[in-house]
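Lecture notes, structural biology module. Today: joint structure prediction for complexes of two components.
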Amino acid sequence: MTASAIGALALILVVAPLLPALAGRTVAFLTGRRGAPLLQPYRDLAKLLGKGAVYSRTTTGVFRLAPAVVLGAALVAAGLLPLDGRRGLAGFGGDMIAFAGLLALGRLLLALAGLDTGSSFEGMGASRELGFATFSEPALFLVLGALALATGESSLGGMLGAPLARAWARAPATLAMVGVSLGIVLLAEASRGPVDDPATHLELTMIHEVTILDHGGPDLGILLYGSALKFALFAALLAGTFLPRAAWPAPLAVAALLPALALVAILVGVIESAMARLRLVQVPHLLTGAAALAALGVVLRVR
Amino acid sequence: MRVGLGLRNRRAVPWPAVPCLAVQEFRRAVIDATGAGGRVVSLFGLPDGPRETRLVAILADDARGELDALSARVSLGYPALTPECPQTHLFEREIAEQCGVVPEGHPWLKPVRRHPPDHLPPGVAPRPFDREAYPFFRIAGDELHEVGVGPVHAGVIEPGHFRFQAHGEEVLFLEIVLGYQHRGVERLLESEPAARGVLIAESIAGDSVIGHVEAWCGALEALARVRKSPRAQAVRGCALELERLASHLGDVGAIAGDIAYAPAAATLGRLRGECLNLLMLLSGNRFGRGLVRPGGVAFDVPDDMAAASVARLERVRAEFDRAADDFFANDSVQGRLDGVGVLTASGCADLGLVGPTARACAVPRDVRTDHPWGVYRYAHIPTATAQAGDASARAVVRQLEIIRSLEFLIEQLPALPRGAPRAALPDRLAPDELTVALVEGWRGEIAHVVVTDATGGIRRWKVTDPSFHNWSALAAAMPGGAISDFPLCNKSFNLSYAGHDL
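The predicted structure, tokenised, for the full assembly:
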């Protein structure tokens, strides 16, 4: 455990809500609008945390458990990720599987909470959330697998640490494919366009938004923060893949996280303003494409 | 179609001249006329003596620009037209609800707006009425689920209930229940004096102010034999096209918003505002209230105002061309819109659809061309059609109509003919007459049918909004589609709840 790992974790926990705001702000800028202030998510979180919670009588403990599990899983996953380009707070051989599993656990609870409300909207949202996960999770595993093959490491700290710079020299094609694939997985996991539409108010078209429709007050605040953190984790994973920082001085490696995350958020905003959202039946096509790309990256390293 | 009545858009005919047929002959005549390419503009009942209701059908022969009126006297029931003439299905449900007359053999006899009868003939006791009673259609099965949306929605829109029978993401059936906005518009138009009637007409559908008040005035002017000056006619035409322009721009922008294509949504939404501001310039109200009045228009358009409007319209045209090129040429947009909510030309003919919805199925139906009135008799606007009948075609038809309305306005406004803006209206209307005023509103054909009594008072004021024809198109377009496409499909029709609910 090092100071730089703690510093990087603290940084990402603080700036996570900025990412969706920055993506939204980019869309607004590109469409000739001003957009919401960057600090608005913090105000929203403060407002929500100050409110009381209302629970439907049809819901059970699962519904109340979901926010805690979603946030807890994301926090532990954040601890596994080498955010400073060296190693995470905790790291062990095969921790990449724990990383993916923790995010899946959060998703599972979100889907169960959606089903728990008995609402047909949320049932459909849960079905979509889990249905698309069956395509995005294999893609994520193939991405992590290709990274492991390219670097010869089995922990996230190794894959994104010092061996990564050497891997870029040895296997640039694999890593480039991994990066693109990871970018697509990010769009799906962070519920961004063209997979999802974070700005919509139309329940029938929602994927992620509709599963949290019945949560209010602090629960909603925690879920919103949790999904922003998930966005930030994938952005950090993507930034870490393209930007090996193990050889940099520690303060610089931590500080570089900030512009790297901002760049990812801006790119997401650019993608969202450049194209319409996919119809739902085409989302699996996109995610399968991402998985195929990562698989090709794996194949290139197997000999 | 029979010859002799000589009924045309905004012409009045003596009520006794409207043939009163036996019910079987009436059915046959309506069914034959629609089978031969005719169209039911309106079908309604009016009380006609103790325990008797007169059914009146207004039929249109669009190819010849002629209208026809037929009637039949019925008592408590009559054999329904719907099994052989599907486009009358909602009209017959409406007759059952308003007049208490049962169309026997109607396959889908459910309430339309869920209100007690308001046009019952004397001597008939109303049946007990339960507003909440509505027999929903259900499909049973372990793998099926039901999704209810509304009447309260997540946006600032009107109330309506949509109930889906779905298999996973696939819609098997959609039932639409409306009536939450029912205000008794027809009864009000029949009972209130004209000074209030014009305000009621402007409020039938808040986004079709010009369209409805134009039809309302058209009916009144036909019954009063008032001739409007060419200037008044041109100003009214400009106001109607501005309303169309604003709504179509807003609609294409809203379609872009639904598919999360932000650039077009932002630009077109702003251009809609620009057109509403132009209506504000003309009338003092962004939705055009207060401009169109019986006999002409309440305000003249000075030359400098016309010139300023044209300059602003030129800017709208330049910006729209850029935004539309970007929107319609984007592959992801085309991929998203193609094949969503498909209607066929034959389905369109069966359901009697109107407006851009019909024109997007390659059915060139446009009151401005088929039954021209006012300025449209001199300044012809080509009818825009598309082939595919899907959401994409409905967007393309709107694009073409935006272009043509802009051309019309930019041509007309600088060259408004001379004349007084408003002619005086006589105190009394012609007694015992029937008139039909049709307007091509931005959603399609708006029809006001008026029958006067022996003293020149209003005996029946029948309003048919285009949405009344077209809601069944939305229900017909959804089965087989994805439930997540419903908001987009709905937006591509953009129908009025208030116009339907009256």
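Point to remember: Chain A has 14 helices and no strands.
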